[in-house]
């Protein structure tokens, strides 16, 4: 560029005087500078000139064929500023033109260099410089600027210039004389001339150019606009121009002076006819053909097109380009660039996959509401008040109930039925095989695999072709190896498939033959089945060739494989051999050494043992034998493949055959057919184990098909758990039998009516049927053979075709119950994947559906995105080859996980936290959980895990009796489920739970309290103050105490004088007359007095034990003691959980035991009496009162007089009430009615008793009835707010049941009724006793609620003044006293009872009872010994046997009137013993209460050194495992 | 093994045209998250502001999560409902926000929106109450093409959440 600029400068300086020109020069210069600065398209600027040049050469034909070096890329960049599309036909200055220009330029260059070489010597300096200037841009400026300047220069310049022209001209002439170039080709000379000469004289040009210059200086765009002109000009000038230039050259030659006007010539407007123009254009432009290019042209020679897609490679969709456009492009590419790199292996233009997304990423302008996505759908909901009963859930619809399931049962087909004849069996088999064949045929796996094999082989072939592949060698090798291994696998699969196909075909034919022979044999036809084998002729020769080729290919592959293997083996062998050799060598050396060593040190042991094993000399592997292999291959082919030339067999099964009519059949067959006719089938629909409907009964057809075509609409409320169809068969008019159950899957929520496909569900039955006719029966062996071999046993089986779907409501909403919350979360997580949203999550597991969806949505199986899915589908549907045992949804999740699931689950801390929040009983009250895992002991979980483990294991150890153990387990489970339900219910709050609103005091109350202020103070009349109630949750151990106030007792049994066999008063039995007012602290040795008149007295004290804490009162005296003492017992809640629910479930009892304190003087010597007191205190248990803690908790206080539970026999005590106190000496003894104790029990602080569960449970009761119960309860509560009114109760499965359903007269055991047939009174007593022995579960114990009566049909509510049972008038017919539930307004609907109709009583096994009795005795004895760890426990066998003798008597008399006999008996036997003892009696439920009862008597507490014990157990079995247990415990002390 | 405690409260809401408001809330997490204790969802009481514009709920949120990954960080979704003078409830807005990922106390403002529905539905809403609701509540936090949904802006729910993170540094997560 610089030289050019310099030149221009020189020029401008030279022609300074010429203003005009200088101006032009200046302008030019600036423009040039500007352009340089801008660096604007250098080439773009160059173009116009090139264009303008073109015309001059236009008459030459385009040398298209020779063009080899077009550079479309550079071309397009040059075109950049013009923004012209690269389509050839788009504009005149199109592609062809440009390529033309390019070509011209190249020609020019070539010509130039040639010309230069010839003219180098002659040409004066400036010219060559100009010519050689490298850039086109310079050329442009020169050309633009020169004409004017040049002309003027020539005028004034020196001779050298003109001389040079002469020379030029000479050269021109020289060139012209040269041999003519072929027409249409610009010769080098011409080109040269063109560039160097011909512009100057042209008047137009000179006019035009300066103008162009000016414009050029101003804007680039204008220049570009101008570009189009030159060609037009050029075209008409073509011929003359050379002439003109010649003349002008001559003019120069003459050295004529030219005025400016000389350059101007007036000419008519140029016009060319369209025809000429077209002609011209044809010559100029290249119009590619629109015809399709044959493939061979696009590919290298002798190469077949290769379709990657067919080989299983992913191609993607090509962008949509019209065929003609493609053809044009292909044609052009072919002519322009023969390199063919634009074409792929398949002969098409290489294209990237279509990048256009099928859906817009911007919203369409007009969105219609109907194309809402399902998730975004909104529903207009009315503003409704909603009742909060269930938990609020975000996301789940609130619409309750009214869901519908449509079950369409279309029909039933038996695949086997007892009435099947032999032929039917075969027919069924044939049909099944044919179905299988059809399915296989449709899938055509063998064909697919063959094709795949072919493709793989091709791929290997092409891969081996080195010039085809451009990849590095090792990757090619790798892929080839992969291919090969795949070929191996595919071949194996293919062989297997083919063999299966062939086998199937063979079996079909075999069965058909059997059937035919059977038909012939029995001479009638039962089934219309007919098999036709269609033969398809094949071209034998081609077939043979293919067969042979296949075998050869296989052999060669196998050979290769074996070679490889062999190679490997050889390698291994060589290595092994080397090793062996080395070892041998070493061995030899060692031996040598050893020899020496042995020689040197003969005494030394024979040294190290030899290496474990001598390596065996390896055997070289054998090379493979080709012949053998070929043999193998051929054999396999013969087995699994159709022989060449053998016709293709296509079986076709039709029902075209005719059935032999009845008349022609033998009798047995007729019988069979009749039997079939008599049978009919119906189905029951069982929903959640309840029958909801049944189909009509339809006769069984001769073809064992039953058509129902019924649709059942099930309105459901609960989520369906099971859906079952029961197939019933009716034979004639006899009963129906349940054939089988068909379990239908619950449909997916996406399946709605109309979309559900009919599915066939198979069923089978295990019934055994033998028939006396031709039918083969079910479950019975039969045979086709004459000799009865080859027996078959067929079970009744069949298929039910049905479809189950959710109904659609009126507004198009499917009536599907909402899923639970977790499921929703799961679903939404999955919804993102497309497949899942369209088929539902279960589609993931149902692979058939997934496959179907994939087929429907036209998933490209080769798209890498779909690869895992496709693989899964192919694997799952074919059922062969490698099956992955997982399918990951969130593939990436695992990569980003911090820790694995296992580790997370292993964390003890998390586990503890979770268990605590789940309120698992063991951890419910775990207060602080350690922050680190290492601080948590493993044993924390032991109990819990053990419980989980043992849940289903029945522990018989604790219960002795397996039946009880089972019952206990069941009870445990019930309790757990109740607690769980309670826990759920606990989280539901009502307004009253959250808000405590004090009632505004009414005027009357205000007035009363005001009045009270004025009341007189009466300090001597104490009043109870209300205590503050404490909420339970803030408590901890030791905060709660149970206060037991023992006030007094009445009629405590008194001691009886020991009417000893040897009526000798012992020293110790010296008694003093008792004073009633004796202070308890007097330690006078009171004793059983034999003083005839004075009463034998008693020194009772009360011991209260609760949770194994024991407190006792002081000792009082006499049978009517008064203690008035307050005992305080601490209370510990289980697991430290003081929540309401936990407190409610405390099962501990408060035992209040009454003992007699007996003092014995143990002083050995009377003489010492003055100086010391030696007495022993003994305590004798008299009776107990048991009060459950839950009662105290619920009642807050217990205040009253309770009957003391005193054993029927108290040895040494009499229960006679002595009237002596009242009546002086009239010692009238009457039998006391029992002893009583007055107690007051409460808790400190007072706890708020928990509310009972208010949860409304499901109910199957009539809605009206339930409403009535609510109303009734409300009314009763209004009148007597403190009386409990029960109308409904919750049963064991958590359903609300109307209470009277529980009441029903039940029959007592027959055995008891027969016991004393003549005495109804005794019978009644016996039965009452029996009932009292039935173990029951003390649930929530409520005392105050005994005021409504239930009968089988009605409830009456007590509306009397009193609610104590004793004071209630039980005449329910008086409406004033009892309010009945059912009245005239609500009639008794006749409710059925939940109780069984009749109880069946089994006799209890006596032996088992006896065994249990022994075991209980043993355990109790052990326990007593355990409780006396510091003392020896002796057992008095004699006494024990005596006691054991008594117990049955006690049972018989039910503990009455036996005391004296006892005493007498015992005295007779054990006269020299002083004993105290009593029998305990209770119904048996489990062992623990028995032990507890024995413990509470404190028998074991006697620590007299020579004490002996006696214990006897008796169990009286009543029917139905009701056991009455008697335990007799006694302690004996030998009198000295 | 990392743990996240979310302790805080739903303070209240401002900017709703309705006056008696309550809020249903729920927390949604990815599969990697495990709730150790606390409840995932709840509902506040109805608050009718007597003074000022803001309805105060001061509803506690206390959740303890264990996680084995960062994916599916907990997010809160809210539904603000209003109760009219007849005791009928209608939707006032859906809202969604992520639980913050840095420890400490955070004041969050969660703007809400509600579906607009067709003009007929709008008219019905204005006169008889009720209004369009999402059939599938998970659209609140799932990234479906929500542009199809025409919504109106509701008010803002204010939350105050305290975050306690534990052991994230053990897995190379700085917080």
Automatic annotation (TrEMBL), chain A:
Biased composition (Basic and acidic residues): 1-12, 99-115, 150-173, 208-218
Acidic residues bias (residue ranges): 13-22, 219-230, 601-613
Region (Disordered): 1-236, 591-617, 1058-1089
Biased composition (Basic residues): 29-41
Domain annotation C2: ranges: 1041-1201
Polar residues: compositionally biased ranges: 1060-1071
Alphabetized UniProt keyword annotations: Coiled coil
Pfam families in the cross-refs: CC2D2AN-C2, CEP76_C, DUF5523
Coiled coil: 439-500
Protein name per the record: Coiled-coil and C2 domain-containing protein 2A isoform X3
Species lineage: Eukaryota, Metazoa, Chordata, Craniata, Vertebrata
UniProtKB/TrEMBL annotation, chain B:
Keyword Transport recorded: no
Key word Transmembrane present: no
Pfam families listed in its UniProt record: B9-C2
PROSITE patterns xrefs: C2_B9 (PS51381)
One BP term from GO: cilium assembly
Main location: cytoplasm
Subcellular location: Cytoplasm, Cytoskeleton, Cilium basal body
One of the record's GO cellular component terms: MKS complex
Key words of the record: Cell projection, Cilium biogenesis/degradation, Cytoplasm, Cytoskeleton
Family: Belongs to the B9D family.
PANTHER family: B9 DOMAIN-CONTAINING (PTHR12968), B9 DOMAIN-CONTAINING PROTEIN 2 (PTHR12968:SF2)
Function: Component of the tectonic-like complex, a complex localized at the transition zone of primary cilia and acting as a barrier that prevents diffusion of transmembrane proteins between the cilia and plasma membranes.
Protein name as it appears in the record: B9 domain-containing protein 2
Provenance organism: Acinonyx jubatus (Cheetah)
